[in-house]
Design a protein that fits this description.
155 residues, OB fold (Dihydrolipoamide Acetyltransferase, E2P), 2 helices, 11 strands, globular
Length: 155
């Protein structure tokens, strides 16, 4: 199952209001359970060849992730949200500068962070132009699907 299909499935489960969905395709099994308003993804291979890497996610990290920082109710700010469950990184490596910091101007399409999911590093791009007002997530912190990451004042 492709990452895009998993994202679509998570989005569907969130919007449909179902409590659990499970899919098996060949030797891959994925189960998405909603415990409140946030889905939790648990997936694992049913059969694993000795040379194949394991496709397991730390379900406990997703289930026990720290709650998002409270977002101030400011009507003119737009939130950049996480499109997936994973680990949030502000830069491509510890010795590199952050993609986006408070006060930085961003344009639509500019990379603002990376989210690691299943050993894949996904560049998250801004969908709007504006100025970063607040970074809501600490570096290397687990994030949930649709969790607010940045507050942006539109340009």
């Amino acid at each position: 199952m492709e990452l895009k299909e998993i994202r679509e499935l998570i989005k569907f489960v969130s919007q449909a209001g179902v409590s659990e969905v499970g899919i098996e395709q060949g030797d891959f099994k994925i189960t998405i359970k909603t415990t409140s308003d946030q889905p939790v993804v648990v997936h694992s291979p049913m059969v694993q060849a000795p040379s194949a890497p394991a496709l397991t996610a730390p379900a406990t990290a997703a289930a026990h992730a720290a709650p998002a920082a409270p977002v101030e109710a400011v009507s003119n700010l737009i939130t950049i949200k996480s499109p997936m469950i994973g680990t949030f990184y502000r830069s491509s490596s510890p010795d590199k500068p952050s993609f986006a910091s408070v006060g930085d101007e961003v344009k639509a399409g500019k990379v603002v962070c990376i989210i690691e999911a299943m050993k894949l590093f996904n560049e998250i791009e801004s969908e709007i132009s504006g100025k970063i007002v607040k970074v809501l997530v600490e570096n290397a912190q687990p994030v949930e699907y649709d969790q607010p990451l940045f507050l942006v004042e539109p340009a």
